[in-house]
Amino acid sequence: MSLLVDRRDLDFQLYEVLGIDDLCSLPRFEQHDRSTFDAVLESAYQLAEGEFAGHAAQLDANEPTFDGERVHIIPEVKAALDAYIEGGFLGAAFDEEVGGLQLPYSICQALAAVFTAANVGTAGYPFLSAAAANLLRVVGSPEQQARYMQPMIAGRFFGTMCLSEPQAGSSLGDIRTRAIAQTDGQGEGKYRIVGNKVWISGGEHDLAENIIHMVLARIEGAPAGTKGISLFIVPKFLVNEDGSLGERNGVRLAGLNHKMGYRGTVNTVLNFGEQDDCIGYLVGEPNQGLAGMFHMMNEARIGVGLGATVLGYTGYLHSLDYARTRLQGRKVSSPDPQGKPVAIIEHTDVKRMLLAQKASVEGALGLCLYCARLVDIQEASEDQAQREQAGLLLEILTPIAKAWPSDWCLEANKHAIQILGGYGYTRDYPVERFYRDNRLNPIHEGTNGIQALDLLGRKVVRGGGTSLKALLAEFSKTAEAAADYDELQEFSETLKQTVVTVGQTTQSLVAEAAGDADRFVANATSYLQMLGHAVIAWQWLRQALVAVQADAGHDTDRHFYAGKLAACRYFFRRELPAMELHARLVAQGEDSCLTMQAEYF
Amino acid sequence: MSLLVDRRDLDFQLYEVLGIDDLCSLPRFEQHDRSTFDAVLESAYQLAEGEFAGHAAQLDANEPTFDGERVHIIPEVKAALDAYIEGGFLGAAFDEEVGGLQLPYSICQALAAVFTAANVGTAGYPFLSAAAANLLRVVGSPEQQARYMQPMIAGRFFGTMCLSEPQAGSSLGDIRTRAIAQTDGQGEGKYRIVGNKVWISGGEHDLAENIIHMVLARIEGAPAGTKGISLFIVPKFLVNEDGSLGERNGVRLAGLNHKMGYRGTVNTVLNFGEQDDCIGYLVGEPNQGLAGMFHMMNEARIGVGLGATVLGYTGYLHSLDYARTRLQGRKVSSPDPQGKPVAIIEHTDVKRMLLAQKASVEGALGLCLYCARLVDIQEASEDQAQREQAGLLLEILTPIAKAWPSDWCLEANKHAIQILGGYGYTRDYPVERFYRDNRLNPIHEGTNGIQALDLLGRKVVRGGGTSLKALLAEFSKTAEAAADYDELQEFSETLKQTVVTVGQTTQSLVAEAAGDADRFVANATSYLQMLGHAVIAWQWLRQALVAVQADAGHDTDRHFYAGKLAACRYFFRRELPAMELHARLVAQGEDSCLTMQAEYF
Questions:
Q1: What is the spatial distance between Cα A256 and Cα A248, in angstroms, rounded to a whole number?
Q2: Cβ of A443 and B422 within 8 Å?
Q3: How far apart are CA B97 and CA B107, in angstroms?
Q4: pLDDT tens-digit readout, B158-216
Q5: Distance between CA atoms of A315 and A411, rounded to whole angstroms?
Q6: Residue in chain B nearest A433 by alpha carbon
Q7: What is the C-alpha separation between B449 and B438, in angstroms, rounded?
């Protein structure tokens, strides 16, 4: 079995649970069927195992370096990316007419899962590039798309996102990079960009002919805060009208960040227009830069959740493999030292750590692919009501899909190390690397604290709570369906109770903290943890519902479905109850953190 | 303020809560008073800040290497250790007549806290050495003490513990290293040692003239399992009767382990008697090797808990320092982008992560120092009843003092990274290093899963549960005392309820799983988590009781005590309730993990 992501499970999630092949009835995907999906997945596994996984440890140990002029990256990265581009993966999500494969986003996320599990550092480059190209797809002009996006889809140019600045990490409204309109008569939309950006992944390298930076900046005289932010294209090399490369632009590498994990993806500090002129081209309307960026960012957040999930997933499979083969100790009931040691998977506490991982990573994978399917519906369905419903669900699920996997699949990586014991703590095994890599995910693309504020401060209350209602209605539907099966009665009841708890907690909070914004969001993280656990429980019941109905022809399948039911049971009984505690804190308006004074620390 | 361990808090814990200066009324410590304790603490802070902290990051980035002949360690380590030995810290706990300072173990642990917080890698060498010397103090013959222990206390020799073998990590009963009695007429107790040991910290280096390995092995013909294990002294260089060094002994370095953290302490694989003869000297009686080792191991486990605590503690102080100075964002209630950003400590969710750290690290520090004081009482009190009582409490508290801090102060380190955001994820700040270092602590000196088995399978049931009863009686005493104060009423009531919960849960488990050993310990980890949270709540109420009675003369003190009360409140309201969930699982005999089948994964 592959130690990246269990292919059997991926097929289960995509086809048996989500029915992704149904997307092929939509005009946008009518050229596909399950066989094309299977073929591209198969080829992703081959490429990931063959070209990505092999140098992951080496890349981690030999991170990119900067000699003052160039960034050096071990050559295996470019070789892998050339094969990736050759295989068409970079453009998988894009339209055929611009050189893409026009695959559903759901399938693209499944592909991303496989490459991330194999080598998160190397996979980072094309993922960022595809995200930048996707932003241009949504907000770029046809001319900008032709000049910048198409070479990115073809893999000739790579892209970045330049948002953060040293003084404004999470607070985008405080960015200061300036855009000064150029009046050289060479057309509108040309600006001089001056400022600094930090945390720019893929900000400098020789992996592609050119790098297209998507940069947030303020046009002179723009309003303060987020309403005065515009989006610009800043190419490393200017691009001539015929597509050939022109002069080097004044975006310069100031230094590299040296991280705990995710070391293979170079992370940079960039200066714009400090020594020499830096040209930027306005994308969309002035002061509307965040709107497009947020469209992209929602998908990026689901992508972060998926990345966190599969780092947890591959760690789980590595620890499972170890637990099956490592002989040590005996059952507590059979301590005879003359007896043979057992495989450690037979120890109940090891099973606990394996189940905790399984419940987290397979539950989170279900959620991320569910969200990906909603993106497909929202973008490609011909039924407006269906699109709106998908939009409502996505709105409330996105912060959870980002935060829950990044919290709990990191926890899964912690368990994987523990199962390997001292070996897990060494760099001879990859589980410590996954743990270091995954620690990034609660931080980037909006910290999990910011996801909590987004969830409670915006998503839950917006439109009179229609998003939350839509989500709880889905919970109820699943609970109703599960009620027909004896094995699922207990979980069906619990999920129904969960709907009540979430509803009552939200109402109590609204009643208790109405009009006091600080108080309202004081327990935002608890609210997110409450709803997050509820969402994962719902996802597990969806999976269990398929498992209980499945026709298991042979032992392998029978065991697979039994495992799904066991993990569902584990989650409902041992993890879900934590949501009661969070609900209680939220409903009571517990104020220990709100009232703590800075000088008391 | 020092960013190692808050000196104000250390004084609070040692003197205001534990009354450590009362130990000076015992004959063993009568030469000391608070002023000598203060002086040695002051000199520890100076040395730790001056010689240890400065090279911690450098040592992490430049871990020891092995060139096939020698181990190379950056020279700052030896310089720091020479100063440490010169300062008398290596022998702090030992009797004056063998060259020590004869300080209480409690004070020694406070010293260890300071050095560990400054540089866990460098501090590892003398700590291991002191532990090995302490083992000889307890089980060595006078001749062995003179020849090996005294040079260790003087810092001329260093020591190691050699327990684990490749095929027997946690399962000591399965070790295979052989001891073959020598019959060359040179006295009894001389053996030839043949085997392999792994995970030996400090197993090879040039930091001292000699290395004394304390090795577990089986004498030929010994019974299987733990009852056939003997303890041997295996010096790197044989030691002549006059104390001078003789021949190189046949213990050889086979390789180094490369770890995620704790990189500064060289960790080795050692071969004994593979190429050349390896001489070992029996310590104590044949087949009694584990008894002495376990005596030492109990202190080592408290030491691991303390190490985990202070890695969490220094991370907390670093993130607190950052949160006070980093300006970013605005209150949710004052979003005006023209307004000034606030220090992030003003954000409620940042306060939450600071309080979570404070509650964990100061609660855990209280527990570890409480245990250290029990060690002092057990070893130095003249009152037999008091010694026995201390022994009972130590028995049940030791697995908790090892496991709880290593779980929750690692979690604290996670929060510290989160507060620093992207910066926290870089190697420019130390918080990621603390997180990597601290990940070892749930693994070594008995994994936390093994601590849970030790707690529930041995300590809770032994002697009809007298240890648990003694502990719960202490809870009740504290709850009673707290009932006199309005501010503590709520917590007093909760702790009383906790006593009931622990008692009932234990009874339910005994009733439910009697006679089925596997079932009895199936939820051992939940039991440990339940009791662990209860113990920390009790520790917090002890601290709050002092804080509420304290006479705060000036603002600094007033804020300090207010912080103690706020952290106590945070822990009781937001963390302690998790124990209910664990108690429920234990009482119900929840069996998801027990019944999971290996083939279902």
A1: 20
A2: yes
A3: 19
A4: 999 999 999 887 888 899 999 999 976 566 799 999 999 999 999 999 999 999 999 99
A5: 11
A6: B260
A7: 17
- Mutate which: A172, A596, A597, vs B, most B CBs within 10 A: A596
A521 in reach of chain B (CB within 8 A):
yes
- How far is CA A176 from each of CA A165, A197, A450, B252, B328, rounded to the nearest angstrom? 8, 10, 21, 60, 14
ipTM more than 0.90? yes
Which pairing describes strands B157-162 and B210-219: parallel, antiparallel, or unpaired?
A: parallel
Q: At what angle do helices A524-549 and B348-380 cross, to 10 degrees?
A: 90
Q: Which residue of B has its CA nearest to A169?
A: B328
Report the alpha-carbon distance of residue A191 to residue B482 in Å, rounded. 68
Q: Please work out, in degrees rounded to the nearest 5, the angle formed at the alpha carbon of residue A173 by the alpha carbons of A171 and A175.
A: 85
Confirm or reject contact between B169 and chain A (CB < 8 A).
Answer: yes
Model pLDDT, residue A185: 59
Residues B32-61: tens digit of each pLDDT: 999 999 999 999 999 999 999 999 999 999
Q: How far is CA A536 from CA A306, A403, A440, A483, in A?
A: 14, 12, 22, 18
Chain B contact for A349 (CB, 8 A cutoff): yes
Which residues in chain A (541-560) have CB-CB distances under 8 A to chain B?
559-560
Return the structure tokens found at A201: 């992944």
SS3 for B159? strand
Tell me the C-alpha distance between A263 and A64, whole Å.
8
* C-beta separation of A368 from A409 below 8 A: no
Nearest CA in chain B to A592: B570
CA angle A347, A353, A359 (to 5 degrees): 130
DSSP structure string for A235-302: ESEEE-TTS-EEEEPSEEEEEE--BSS-TTS-EEEEEESSSS--EEEEESSTT-HHHHHHHHHHHHHH
Residue A346 touches chain B, beta carbons under 8 Å: yes
Whole-angstrom distance, CA of residue A181 vs CA of residue A204: 26
DSSP secondary structure code for residue A426 in this structure: B
Print the SS3 string covering B555-597: HHHHHHHHHHHHHHHHHHHHHCCHHHHHHHHHHHCCCHHHHCC
**Size of chain B in residues:** 601
Residues paired with A179 in a beta bridge: A193, A219
Beta bridge partners of B234: B213
A328 near B CB under 8 A: yes
The predicted model scores a pTM of 0.97
